[in-house]
Amino acid sequence: MEDLPGIVITGASGRMGQMLINTVVDSDKAKLVGAVEREGHAWVGQDVGVAMGGAALGVTVTDKPLEAFAKAQAVIDFTAPAATIEFSKLAAQARAVHVIGTTGMTDDEIAQLEPASYHAVIVRAGNMSLGVNLLTQLTKKVAAALDEDFDIEVIEAHHHHKVDAPSGTALMLGEAAAEGRGVNLADVRDSGRDGITGARKRGDIGFTAIRGGDIVGEHDVLFAAAGERIVLRHLATDRAIFARGALKAALWGQDKMPGQYDMVDVLGL
């Protein structure tokens, strides 16, 4: 157990935070060495297992991330963009692998991760599941094979608590489609349609976001032309797939050179 990589989970009290904690605790390939929450949170100072309503795990929730990161070989982070940027600096100081599942990051925010990647491994992905990353590769290949007679729409559905739209996964799929077509997504993105929008522009990549209930995650990539449609689909029914993927990324990054990676690298796709 002593030789296993130590993992810190940020945003410990969140749904993904708790799922990640359980995944690490249940793993025989890593050990939980830290749990981080924001300053003033009710969990700070408590054993994280007790705070989650279970047995003590011997890990106290802290609001001092650098102290926690210094004891770890990896940090798994599904929080918010501003927090993730700060965590990237601290993880780099600790030379810990920083696995980022945070979504809703702008291009400017993503660019702010680059300095940390000079000193530590960063693995960032809009989605950590094997199936979604396979879907991403398929989307790129299909988009490359079809011309602009096929309209591309990315349709995603999530639970009603999700705060960003389109989802990080939807944008990842849109980027893959744009790459397949040899264009920049920013130049062809079409989202948030409402009212009299006019006809759909040829070559655009559209996005639709559905929010409701407890939907874990559903993503369709629709290629629609006159007389035929192709639909690539991924349905997630268990949030644990994201936690397992994140842990896989944390372990994969242990012997890698500093830099920025994604799940395509982790999965060898």
TrEMBL record:
<keyword id="KW-0963">Cytoplasm</keyword>
<feature type="binding site">
    <location>
        <begin position="125"/>
        <end position="128"/>
    </location>
    <ligand>
        <name>NAD(+)</name>
    </ligand>
</feature>
<feature type="binding site">
    <location>
        <begin position="168"/>
        <end position="169"/>
    </location>
    <ligand>
        <name>(S)-2,3,4,5-tetrahydrodipicolinate</name>
    </ligand>
</feature>
<comment type="subunit">
    <text>Homotetramer.</text>
</comment>
<dbReference type="Pfam" id="PF01113">
    <property type="entry name" value="DapB_N"/>
</dbReference>
<dbReference type="InterPro" id="IPR023940">
    <property type="entry name" value="DHDPR_bac"/>
</dbReference>
<feature type="active site" description="Proton donor/acceptor">
    <location>
        <position position="158"/>
    </location>
</feature>
<feature type="domain" description="Dihydrodipicolinate reductase C-terminal">
    <location>
        <begin position="131"/>
        <end position="267"/>
    </location>
</feature>
<feature type="domain" description="Dihydrodipicolinate reductase N-terminal">
    <location>
        <begin position="7"/>
        <end position="128"/>
    </location>
</feature>
<comment type="similarity">
    <text>Belongs to the DapB family.</text>
</comment>
<dbReference type="GO" id="GO:0009089">
    <property type="term" value="P:lysine biosynthetic process via diaminopimelate"/>
</dbReference>
<feature type="binding site">
    <location>
        <position position="159"/>
    </location>
    <ligand>
        <name>(S)-2,3,4,5-tetrahydrodipicolinate</name>
    </ligand>
</feature>
<protein>
    <recommendedName>
        <fullName>4-hydroxy-tetrahydrodipicolinate reductase</fullName>
        <ecNumber>1.17.1.8</ecNumber>
    </recommendedName>
</protein>
<feature type="active site" description="Proton donor">
    <location>
        <position position="162"/>
    </location>
</feature>
<feature type="binding site">
    <location>
        <position position="38"/>
    </location>
    <ligand>
        <name>NADP(+)</name>
    </ligand>
</feature>
<dbReference type="GO" id="GO:0051287">
    <property type="term" value="F:NAD binding"/>
</dbReference>
<dbReference type="GO" id="GO:0005829">
    <property type="term" value="C:cytosol"/>
</dbReference>
<dbReference type="GO" id="GO:0008839">
    <property type="term" value="F:4-hydroxy-tetrahydrodipicolinate reductase"/>
</dbReference>
<dbReference type="InterPro" id="IPR022663">
    <property type="entry name" value="DapB_C"/>
</dbReference>
<dbReference type="Pfam" id="PF05173">
    <property type="entry name" value="DapB_C"/>
</dbReference>
<comment type="function">
    <text>Catalyzes the conversion of 4-hydroxy-tetrahydrodipicolinate (HTPA) to tetrahydrodipicolinate.</text>
</comment>
<dbReference type="GO" id="GO:0016726">
    <property type="term" value="F:oxidoreductase activity, acting on CH or CH2 groups, NAD or NADP as acceptor"/>
</dbReference>
<keyword id="KW-0521">NADP</keyword>
<keyword id="KW-0520">NAD</keyword>
<feature type="binding site">
    <location>
        <begin position="101"/>
        <end position="103"/>
    </location>
    <ligand>
        <name>NAD(+)</name>
    </ligand>
</feature>
<keyword id="KW-0028">Amino-acid biosynthesis</keyword>
<dbReference type="InterPro" id="IPR000846">
    <property type="entry name" value="DapB_N"/>
</dbReference>
<dbReference type="GO" id="GO:0019877">
    <property type="term" value="P:diaminopimelate biosynthetic process"/>
</dbReference>
<dbReference type="InterPro" id="IPR022664">
    <property type="entry name" value="DapB_N_CS"/>
</dbReference>
<keyword id="KW-0457">Lysine biosynthesis</keyword>
<keyword id="KW-0560">Oxidoreductase</keyword>
<dbReference type="InterPro" id="IPR036291">
    <property type="entry name" value="NAD(P)-bd_dom_sf"/>
</dbReference>
<feature type="binding site">
    <location>
        <begin position="11"/>
        <end position="16"/>
    </location>
    <ligand>
        <name>NAD(+)</name>
    </ligand>
</feature>
<comment type="pathway">
    <text>Amino-acid biosynthesis; L-lysine biosynthesis via DAP pathway; (S)-tetrahydrodipicolinate from L-aspartate: step 4/4.</text>
</comment>
<dbReference type="GO" id="GO:0050661">
    <property type="term" value="F:NADP binding"/>
</dbReference>
<keyword id="KW-0220">Diaminopimelate biosynthesis</keyword>
<feature type="binding site">
    <location>
        <position position="37"/>
    </location>
    <ligand>
        <name>NAD(+)</name>
    </ligand>
</feature>
